[in-house]
């Protein structure tokens, strides 16, 4: 009667990670390991100015004095830095002038990822930057954006073409000494995306970057820097996938957002790095530092749907420096099988009348562990600061765990801080109710979970929301018996 | 429509239904009454396919199909509808979205095309009027924050939308005031046709003032021990269940 456990198990077999393919593209790799020579190698490969090499070496020196953080509620074998390849680039001699020049294998990869550029170009008008392994390979729509003075390109290109902008802003939000992984990234980052929106310009399309780790034994260390000048607006999307491998691969990115006066940045992520197999073998270690700073009346909104990675350690944060600035964090984090996630946000209120909202929805299934860790900090001068936090956890099995670590530090008595939290188990009654209305168990779970995440999914741009819903469905298939 | 023969069912090893027989034909309304713990709600759950219950003996023929062999969702798709005694809340899922998913799943099962947005909305408008359901409730989350009466009306609204062959109303009258009761009952009556059938499970006779049954059955200790015309309900209302118990025990 109904859906048997055997059927479930069978379904599960067939629903392994669907982005687990490897693209057969020749790549240009550095020898494994990490030392000053490797850093010089990377910098030389990228034809970087002297100041950037110095920046890297300084970060490396700092990193050597640091130890890997252990406070997160996750357990894993620490990656051996001497076994990782810190530079791997798809072999190519020239930059692509147009989409037609892109390697057909690469195009195939993108197709498998569900990003047909042609289609995107035609239908959605999304400008896409595609970062494979460590190097950005294609940026579409550049000309159109240029007319408005918008710069959207790979990080390396920005270093060459707009060194003054990069030098001025890089490391101002996430200093090299910020934490172990940020320092590592600052030393060895290979590429990423750069975006600058000029004063008063409203970016007419979603800017989007797809990150993919292809090569085995490599780490991905990309940097993203988004600068929204006074009164401008941009919505930025980021998607991530990686092939299925038995080894753990390290992804340590740094994302810096700068919203100047009256500017607004909306940053959305759908993270689907390979989570490892059902026994917890393989998968990506996703150790990411994301932070934004808001000047007066500015707003930064982070939305993330996290379904992948073996271990996630990630706290997209806002420094609300300017008066009346606004920070938002909307998150859905799903863990299944042996995945572990320790994710949340930091809202640092420095300015007066600053406002922050945190909506976090954790979903744990299988034997996974899912933690929310958040900090709301109200500084002395932040009069009338406000925060609203809501942290919900949904449990799908008897063997998973959900944890909440909310920290509040308040040094101004006029602040208003609200915190709500719930933990619930997906109801057999709810599933039965759906089934009695003709909806099968998988669809029922997807319906219930989507309902649970609605406040977050609503924040995503339309096409992205559809993708996120599908991902949730795939990630949780077979998770309730 | 449905023929239940010698049905035995238990939960956690405890037998609740102990050889129940019942036949309902198209166009008929049957009322099932009985004291607390007789197995009324168990019957509804077993027919709908709730997994906690184990059927140990007996057969159920539903319009030529072996009902017990069908999955819960396929029973619904074949046209069996259960109006829940305690309708379930599904936060964040709009009533509309829920119903459209449901309706399309049923249509797909029957090899029909998905309903168009236009037709669907027209149907929603039409059917919500039937149970005087505020159109605002259609866009709210399923049963979330609904009053008791609204939840029950929402069940009948769903029933109207899905047009089942057989509807089982499980204590639909509980928690309803007299006005809501009338609205719900009139909805059920308007949906009645010679092609569908209804089983009304109730404690009290008062619902049967509005939904007139063709037959009344008394369920006691897992079996139907007495059946009769609608007047039987009045007799039960007047005399209680003790005389039935005495009758059964005398046998």
Structure classification of chain B: alpha/beta
**Count of extended strands of chain A:** 23
List unreliable stretches of 5+ residues of chain A.
Answer: 1-6, 8-15, 92-97, 115-126
**What is the overall shape of chain A?**
globular
Largest binding interface between chains: A-B, 25 and 32 residues
- From the N-terminal CA to the C-terminal CA of chain B, the straight-line distance is 31 Å
Oligomer: heterodimer
What does this structure look like?
With 481 residues, chain A is an alpha/beta fold. Helices cover 25% and strands 35% of the residues of chain A. Chain A has 13 helices and 23 strands. In chain A, the strands form 3 sheets. In chain A, strands 5, 6, 8, 10, 11, 13, 15, 16, 18, 20 and 22 form an 11-stranded mixed sheet that branches. In chain A, strands 4-3-7-9-12-14-17-19-21-23 form a 10-stranded mixed sheet. A two-stranded antiparallel sheet of chain A has the order 1-2. In chain A, α10 crosses α11. The longest helix of chain A has 15 residues. The two termini of chain A are 12 Å apart. The N terminus of chain A is likely disordered. Chain B contains 9 helices and 12 strands. In chain B, a hairpin with a 2-residue loop joins β1 and β2. In chain B, α4 crosses α6 and α6 runs parallel beside α7. The model of chain B has no long low-confidence stretch (mean pLDDT 92). At the A-B interface, α10 and α11 of A face α2, β7 and α3 of B.
């Amino acid at each position: 009667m109904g859906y048997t456990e055997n059927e479930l198990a069978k379904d599960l077999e067939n629903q392994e990670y669907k982005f687990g393919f490897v693209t057969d593209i020749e790549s240009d790799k550095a020898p494994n390991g990490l030392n000053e020579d490797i850093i010089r190698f990377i910098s030389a490969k990228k034809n970087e100015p002297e100041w950037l090499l110095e920046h890297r070496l300084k970060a490396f020196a700092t990193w050597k004095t640091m130890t890997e953080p252990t406070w997160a509620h996750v357990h894993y074998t620490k990656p051996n830095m001497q076994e990782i390849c810190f530079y791997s680039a798809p072999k190519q001699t020239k930059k692509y002038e147009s989409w037609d020049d892109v390697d057909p294998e690469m195009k195939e990869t993108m197709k498998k990822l569900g990003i047909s550029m042609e289609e995107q170009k035609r239908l959605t008008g999304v400008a896409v930057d595609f970062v494979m392994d460590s190097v950005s390979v294609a940026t579409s729509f550049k000309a159109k954006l240029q007319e408005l003075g918008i710069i959207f390109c790979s990080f390396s290109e920005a270093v060459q073409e707009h060194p003054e902008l990069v030098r001025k802003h890089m490391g101002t939000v996430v200093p090299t000494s910020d934490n172990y992984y940020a320092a590592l990234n600052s030393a060895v980052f290979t590429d990423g995306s750069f975006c600058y929106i000029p004063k008063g310009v409203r970016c007419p399309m979603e800017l989007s970057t797809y990150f993919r780790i292809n090569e085995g034994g490599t780490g991905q260390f990309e940097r993203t820097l988004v600068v929204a000048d006074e009164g401008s607006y941009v919505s930025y999307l980021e998607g991530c996938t990686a092939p299925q491998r038995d080894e753990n691969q390290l992804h340590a990115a740094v994302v810096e957002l700068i919203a100047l006066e009256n500017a607004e940045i909306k940053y959305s992520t759908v993270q689907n790095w390979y989570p490892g197999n059902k026994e917890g073998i393989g998968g990506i270690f996703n150790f990411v530092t994301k932070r934004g700073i808001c000047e007066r009346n500015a707003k930064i909104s982070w939305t993330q749907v996290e379904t992948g990675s073996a271990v996630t350690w990630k706290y997209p944060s806002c420094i609300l420096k300017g008066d009346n600035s606004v920070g938002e964090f909307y998150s859905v984090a799903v863990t299944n099988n042996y995945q572990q996630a320790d994710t949340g946000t930091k809202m640092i209120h420095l300015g007066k009348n600053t406002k922050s909202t945190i909506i976090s929805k954790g979903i744990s299934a299988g034997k996974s562990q899912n933690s929310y860790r958040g900090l709301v900090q109200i500084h002395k001068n932040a009069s009338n600061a406000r925060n609203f936090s809501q942290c919900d956890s949904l449990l799908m099995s008897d063997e998973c765990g959900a944890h909440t670590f909310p920290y509040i530090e308040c040094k101004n008595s006029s602040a208003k801080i609200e915190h709500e939290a719930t933990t619930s188990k997906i109801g057999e009654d709810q599933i039965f109710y759906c089934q009695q209305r003709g909806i099968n168990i998988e669809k029922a779970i997807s319906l219930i979970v989507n309902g649970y995440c609605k406040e977050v999914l609503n924040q995503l741009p339309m096409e992205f929301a559809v993708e996120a819903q599908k991902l949730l469905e795939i990630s949780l298939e077979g998770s309730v018996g | 429509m449905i023929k239940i023969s010698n049905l035995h069912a238990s939960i956690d090893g405890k037998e609740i239904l102990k050889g129940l027989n019942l036949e309902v034909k198209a166009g008929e309304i049957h009322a099932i009454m009985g004291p607390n713990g007789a197995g009324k709600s168990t019957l509804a759950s077993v027919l709908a396919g709730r997994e906690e219950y184990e059927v140990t003996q007996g057969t159920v023929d539903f319009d030529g199909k072996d009902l017990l062999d069908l999955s819960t969702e396929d029973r619904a798709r074949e046209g069996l509808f259960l109006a829940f005694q305690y309708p379930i809340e599904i936060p964040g899922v709009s009533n509309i979205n829920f119903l459209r998913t449901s309706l399309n799943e049923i249509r797909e099962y029957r090899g029909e095309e998905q309903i168009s947005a236009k037709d669907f909305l027209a149907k929603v408008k039409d059917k919500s009027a039937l149970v005087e359901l505020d159109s605002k409730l259609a866009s709210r989350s399923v049963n979330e924050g609904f009053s008791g009466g609204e939840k029950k009306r929402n069940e009948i609204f769903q029933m109207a939308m899905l047009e089942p062959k057989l509807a089982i109303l499980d204590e639909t009258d509980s928690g309803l005031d007299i006005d809501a009761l009338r609205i719900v009952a009139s909805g059920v009556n308007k949906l009645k046709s010679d092609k569908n059938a209804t089983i009304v499970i109730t404690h009290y006779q008062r619902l049967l003032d509005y939904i007139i049954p063709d037959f009344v059955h008394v369920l006691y200790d897992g079996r139907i021990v007495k059946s009769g015309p609608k007047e039987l309900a009045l007799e039960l209302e007047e005399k209680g269940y003790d005389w039935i118990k005495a009758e059964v025990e005398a046998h």
